[in-house]
Write a structure and sequence with these properties.
- By secondary structure, the chain is an alpha/beta fold.
- The chain has 3 domains: 3-163, 3-Layer(aba) Sandwich (Rossmann fold); 184-318, Rossmann fold (3-Layer(aba) Sandwich), CATH 3.40.50; 344-518, Thiamin diphosphate (ThDP)-binding fold, Pyr/PP domains (Rossmann fold, 3-Layer(aba) Sandwich).
- The chain is 38% helix and 18% strand.
- The chain contains 21 helices and 18 strands.
- It has helices at residues 3-13, 28-35, 48-62, 72-78, 80-89, 115-119, 132-149, 159-163, 184-196, 215-228, 256-262, 307-318, 344-354, 368-372, 395-405, 417-420, 426-432, 448-456, 464-470, 479-485, 496-508, and strands at 18-22, 41-44, 67-71, 93-99, 125-128, 152-158, 203-208, 231-234, 240-242, 250-251, 266-272, 296-300, 360-364, 382-386, 411-416, 437-443, 489-493, 513-518.
- The strands form 3 sheets. It has a 7-stranded mixed sheet with strand order 9-14-13-15-16-18-17, sandwiched between helices.
- α9 crosses α12 and α13 (344-354) packs parallel to α21 (496-508).
- It is globular.
- The chain binds thiamine diphosphate (TPP).
């Protein structure tokens, strides 16, 4: 047995059983070891950003880490933007980054790089197995740190640590750290603030993030809000439970003016699992902090805390158990397909009437999402996986990871065209793995959000240089040809009727399908 075999053993013993990979020569012993363990599912990404984004999507749905296999510093560097998104989503992940054998590093061969330096800013923990004898300990530590921090752990595996011999000691699963508990005093302070909410002139809000946005935690938050008259908001997080019958919750808007308006008059904010909300960007004369000056903020925990227990204890302190949460209405789906020109509104209507039960929506729709937002509460209950860290190019990889994690659920990917081009190779992985993903491309052929942002900065006239940087037509991308070239069937829709028909047909079959929605 060699170090690479032992690495595979430790991963599998700890239920890390999927590896999103793009290997190179320094990882050949690891590839051979993975080959000896067919119970490990190895999924190839044709670019490392696909592998890291897919591991993120997998963790958001499976609630446990996948591994990635990345080739030295440059391979890792290609995956960094989506590691940044994963770090912001607070999902566990175990990166295995191959390196040259230790004795080869002083020769400064072409792929030699500062892997530690590249990994550090996008990882909560970085470790290196110097020799084969280190592999078991470092792999176990990586898994523990991924869970403890609910975040990215990166392990560097030099080639000689992979090929060096080790004793075949049977490795048992490690004991995983329990989520941390929020201090009782903080919960009491939040309860006192919420008790007083009704007697104050200003507003009190509960702002939820991370694991507070699903399951029992979300239900408890709904009852607390109903009992205390506090309003519920959400911060962009790894996974949101949304749709008909779900606890009604308002996302904090992206646009600063809208966010400030939504939070106007708030005097107390209880932030569950997150700090107080901030603007995505700075703009001249606009605030960075979104809550009004002087607002009292009580933060209960972060992604490493047990938010379900926190909300349960808060509920007990308030006695809100019998309250009835405000929910999105439950209504019959309309049987009438929309007709006429294709717009965001007709796309929203089609998704609302056709979305299968318990679907997963991966959302990198950027500006198009604003047009779809009004339809979300009327969609059948689903999970939404949004862009968390603002680094575009996550949508297609996210859909790959989510579909691998949940083979029995339909994945709908809402994908803006500009962002989709960053990691479109992920379509090939959808086809290779026959993943059940329907991709809708919003083909508006511009970087629409950046045009809005130019206007927000006070620039209303776009000259040739600005247009050449903010439009992505000339030539128009042919998404159907791109998809077919990677083995994904595709069709174009330029009317509401055609889109509705294609979406219904795509949902009715299994396997990947792409619809280019021409806007
Ligand atoms: C990694 C990265 N590069 C660049 C950007 C800047 N950026 C933000 S949105 C955007 C274009 C989005 O265009 P598209 O995906 O077509 O969506 P639309 O705005 O048209 O809705 C760019 C380039 C970014 N956020 N992340």
């Amino acid at each position: 047995m060699n170090g690479a075999d032992q690495l595979c053993d430790v991963l599998l013993q700890n239920e890390v059983s999927v590896c999103f990979a793009n290997p190179g020569t320094s990882e050949m012993h690891f590839v051979a070891a993975l080959d000896r363990r067919p119970e490990m599912r190895c999924v190839l990404g044709l670019f490392e950003g696909v592998a890291t984004g897919a591991a993120d999507g997998y963790a958001r749905i499976a609630d446990r880490p996948a591994a990635t296999l990345l080739h030295t510093g440059p391979g890792l560097a290609n995956g960094l933007a989506n590691l940044h998104n994963a770090r912001r989503a607070c999902v566990p992940m175990v990166n295995i980054i191959g390196d040259h054998a230790g004795y080869h590093l002083p020769f400064d061969a072409p792929l030699t790089a500062d892997i530690q330096g590249l990994a550090q800013p996008m990882s909560a923990w970085v470790g290196r197995a110097e020799t084969a004898a280190d592999v078991r300990r470092v792999t176990e530590q990586a898994i523990v740190e991924a869970w403890r921090n609910s975040n990215v752990a990166s392990m560097i595996l030099p080639a000689d640590a992979a090929w060096g011999a080790v004793d075949a000691a049977p490795a048992g699963p490690v004991s995983l750290p329990a989520r941390r508990q929020v201090p009782a005093e903080s919960i009491e302070a939040a309860a006192r603030a919420l008790h007083r909410a009704g007697q104050r002139d200003d507003r009190t809000v509960l702002i939820l993030s991370g694991r507070a946005l699903h399951g029992a935690a979300l239900e408890a938050a709904g009852r607390i809000a109903a009992h205390t008259d506090a309003m519920l908001f959400s911060q962009q997080s790894a996974r949101h439970e949304r749709g008909q019958g779900r606890v009604s919750i308002r996302p904090i808007p992206y646009v600063v003016d809208m966010a400030v308006e939504a939070l106007k008059g708030v005097g107390q904010a209880i932030c569950i699992g997150c700090p107080a909300p901030v603007a995505f960007f700075a703009y001249p004369g606009k605030p960075s902090a979104l809550l009004p000056d002087g607002c009292k903020v009580i933060q209960l925990g972060d992604a490493t805390h047990d938010l379900a227990t926190t909300l349960d204890l808060l509920e007990q302190a308030l006695g809100s158990g019998g309250a009835i949460a405000t929910r999105n209405p439950v209504a019959q789906r309309t049987t009438e397909p929309p007709t006429g020109p294709l717009t965001l509104s007709t796309i929203g209507q089609s998704v609302a009437r056709l979305l299968p039960e318990n679907a997963i929506i991966c959302d990198e729709s950027i500006t198009s999402g604003r047009g779809l937002a009004p339809f979300i509460p009327s969609m059948t209950p689903h999970d939404q996986l949004p862009l968390t860290g603002g680094a575009i190019g996550i949508g297609i990889p996210l859909s790959v990871g989510a579909a691998v994690a949940a083979p029995d659920r339909k994945v709908l990917l809402l994908q803006a065209d500009g962002s989709g081009m960053y990691t479109l190779q992920g379509l090939w992985t959808q086809a290779r793995e026959n993943l059940d993903v329907v991709t809708v491309i919003f083909a508006n052929r511009t970087y629409a959000i950046l045009q809005d942002e130019m206007r927000n900065m006070g620039v209303n006239q776009f000259g040739q240089n600005a247009r050449s940087m903010l439009e992505i037509g000339r030539p128009d991308l042919d998404w159907c040809a791109l998809a077919r070239g990677m083995g994904v069937e595709a069709a174009r829709a330029d009317s509401a009727d055609a889109f509705d028909q294609l979406l219904g047909a795509a949902f009715a079959r299994r396997g990947p399908f792409l619809i280019e929605a021409v806007l």
